[in-house]
Amino acid sequence: MGEDKKEEVCCCCEKHKERSDKEYRDLMNRLKRIEGQVRGIQGMLEKDAYCIDILVQVSAINAALNSFNKKLLANHIGTCVAENIREGHDEVIQELVDVLPKLMK
Amino acid sequence: MGEDKKEEVCCCCEKHKERSDKEYRDLMNRLKRIEGQVRGIQGMLEKDAYCIDILVQVSAINAALNSFNKKLLANHIGTCVAENIREGHDEVIQELVDVLPKLMK
Amino acid sequence: MGEDKKEEVCCCCEKHKERSDKEYRDLMNRLKRIEGQVRGIQGMLEKDAYCIDILVQVSAINAALNSFNKKLLANHIGTCVAENIREGHDEVIQELVDVLPKLMK
Amino acid sequence: MGEDKKEEVCCCCEKHKERSDKEYRDLMNRLKRIEGQVRGIQGMLEKDAYCIDILVQVSAINAALNSFNKKLLANHIGTCVAENIREGHDEVIQELVDVLPKLMK
């Protein structure tokens, strides 16, 4: 996210998405924490940690990733999807419909 | 996993688990790849990547983590659980029963 | 879905949703099949079926229900959500954002 | 589950499983309730219920089925799996390892 950030808080055109500073930092912090969790499990493996303890930690990472995805998706619908529909770019609907099954149970 | 690894390929006593070299390397390689994927998403975020593209990549990490967990769990059942039941340490059953809901849908 | 169905194929106002005959029949058929699957498992239980066989059948029902939900959600987004956004009823966005976590992993 | 139920509370041989009366009734009651929930959704569809309301109810059925599966699996591990391992029938391990991925996220 460069310094030359344009005024608009959301631009979804040309398959790019400028995020507000607040959203960017929140998402990046989540990813840094998740990276730390993955390295934590590497450390557990090096110390011959018990399988059950590793399984529980991996589940925690999955939960953190799902929480990240829910946050991102909610923002996407509230900004990109809504704006594009208002402007008549209805292809955003099919795009959303196509990605949801990947995220659902 | 040091050089002073003992003879036994599986010891699940005292909440530790010695893994075979092959299993250790497989699991560690998976974690290194997953760490790389998480960093890849940080890079996408820095480049203002489109929400949908990020959502798809995060789903791929979730799938990789679940695959890691399935591998680890299968090995745990085939070694620790089976051995402990044979030796009369039935508390391993309750432990497995308690962790499964965390891993199930 | 009575005979007095109005002209419009989609009306999402007042928390109702008129579905096209085709969509209605598709969804209802899926539910009838799912009901049959649930009764099938009752029959398995009565015949002392093996746990593993029951677990597999229950997983099949879960998959059928998820498939039903994906279908319904895709239709909801393509009709109700899109129409309401176009007409300025943006509360449909928050409603969608609130329900998605219940459907996601 | 006939009247001629044998003494043993668990017999997992020949791919059958005799369940205690208590377990049988608990599992059957859950299935009856789930069948009622599926019919309830058919009723919602007939009354042109709103998509979001249907999605939430289907999620509730999924949760009930998962809860049923967790119960059944816990009992299977505590009885069939443990007994078979003690008696040297280790094929029960592979069987469990094969079914778990179907039940996991």
Automatic annotation (TrEMBL), chains A, B, C, D:
This is Metal-sensing transcriptional repressor. InterPro entries: Metal_Tscrpt_repr, Metal_Tscrpt_repr_sf. Gene3D superfamilies: Metal-sensitive repressor, helix protomer (1.20.58.1000).
